[in-house]
Amino acid sequence: MADTWDNVTIPEFNSLLQMDPYLKQYEKDFRRRYGLFEKRLFLLEEAEGGFDQFTRSYRTFGVNRMADNRLVLREWAPAAEALFLTGDFNGWDNFSHPYEKKEFGKWELCLPPKHDKSPAIEHNTKLKVVVHTKKGERLYRISPWAKYAIQTEKQVIYDWVHWDPPQPYLHIHPRPKKPQSLRIYESHVGIASPDPKVASYTNFTTNVLPRIKDLGYNCIQLMAVMEHAYYASFGYQVTSFFAASSRYGTPEELKQLIDTAHSLDIVVLLDVVHSHASQNTEDGLNSFDGSDSCFFHSPPRGEHALWGSRLFNYSSWEVLRFLLSNLRWWMEEYRFDGFRFDGVTSMMYHHHGIGSMFSGDYSEYFGLQVDEDSLVYLMTANHVLHTLYPDCITIAEILKELADEAWDMGNIVYTLTNRRYGENCIAYAESHDQSLVGDKSLAFWLMDKEMYTNMSSLIPMTPVIDRGIQLHKMIRLLTHALGGEGYLNFMGNEFGHPEWLDFPRKGNNESYHYARRQYNLLDTDHLRYRQLYDFDRDMNRTEDKYGWLAAPPAFVSAKHEGDKVIVFERGNVLFLLNFHPTRSQTNYRVAVASPGKYTIKLDSDEVQYGGHGRLDHNTEFFTEPQPFNERDNSMLVYIPCRTALILGNDDTESCY
Question: 63, 230, 321, 476: least CB-packed within 10 angstroms?
Answer without folding.
Answer: 230
